[in-house]
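Researcher: Hi, I'm a grad student and pretty new to this. My advisor asked me to get structures for two proteins we've been looking at. I'm not sure of the right format, so I'll just paste the first sequence and hope you can take it from there.
Model: That works fine. Here's the first sequence with its structure tokens right after it:
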Amino acid sequence: MVDEALLDFGPADEEELEALRLLASSLARLFSYPSVEEARVFTDGESVQFLMGLAARIQAPDALLEQRASQALAWAAKPADERGQTMRRELTRLCYRPEAPVPLEGRRWVRRDPAEPEARLGESASVAQSYRAAGLKLRVGVVEGSDALPTELDFLAAVLGQELAFGREGNGAQALVWKRRRTVFAERHLGPLARAVGQGIERLSTWPPLLLWTALLQIAVHRCGY
């Protein structure tokens, strides 16, 4: 049977799915290694306000998130060059160097029962299989591996876009197919990866923007079914 909630798809559902889609897409770029100019833009006050606006649209803000946003906004007052250099340095230190303590690839974190088909296939190949099954292509310019956090977030944004499109059309059956697809993907792949990356960053970083993005990452995967 079709989920009755999807048959009653209305403005509030559309608002939340669109905000989730934009949040997933934004986080995909924030956890990618940025150019100098991107790093300046991603760490300015407008970026913080944009992200918190998305959080408000999915009714996510809480005391901790508000505190982190306030700290990130205070940090955004620093000179653009300092902000950009710090972002690139912090991501390099934690995620984008040999033997990085918080690698972004799912194969480094996700552990399964050896009897599971996904375990025999391997995390990277299993994630790629999810992409092929959905028939979706990632955005132009993606260079990370199939099981890298930015790539998985891009895929989540694409799946949310399909769910949103079918919901707007009133096609509850197809919207449910895509809802289940993003829920399974969050449960099996993105959720465990996001949790591990978040725990690593929380343990090793005190940089306000990154802590804000990490909190938003956990909210996004939770809202998507993890």
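Researcher: Oh nice, that was easy. Here's the second one.
Model: And its structure:
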Amino acid sequence: MMAPPRALHSLPPEGASASSGRPGTGIKPVAVVMGVSGSGKTTLARRLAEALSWPFQEGDDLHPPGNIAKLNAGTALTDADRAPWLDAIRAWIATREAAGGGGTLSCSALRRRYRDYIREHHPSVCLIYLRGTYEALSERLDGRKGHFMASSLLASQLATLEEPDEDEPVLVLDIGIPLDTKVRQAVEWLARCAQRPGVPHRTEGKA
């Protein structure tokens, strides 16, 4: 029986490492596409879902209304704000695992402890990190319409961001890589991530 999730504040301190989070036998991976606002998380997660015929979940849609109001106003979220959002993400992943796995989800997952919390008791999770410079991300945000995230929060997000460590199951892709190439590399990497045993840790994508 799955242990109940711990409160976010009860996680190990920064620098502590969670269990490997490697996929369990017979469960397809759940791809969590992560990065700051403007990195293209939703676009890649949707395309992956289409390519693999998997369900897609927009992580932003799991925020409670209070969080969305804060983000709209350009107010950075606290750990207390993020706790119910992270719990909702874990619940969605648990539902996919119960169905045999397979799914894509877009989620900023900026800090290591957030990623560890998402992966705890959910060994199917494989991360895909979209990396970009402030200049490239800012240019993207300036041209984006209809999103609740204020572009003024980019600097705050980058300051909060803890890039994935070598021991995390993550594929790192530069945002400048063409979308079709990102999709191809992500599909290939997820196939490797699904292998038992031998899940890769941090892997750098190629332009």
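Researcher: Is there anything I should tell my advisor about the second?
Model: You could mention this: Residues 1-25 have pLDDT under 50 and may be disordered.
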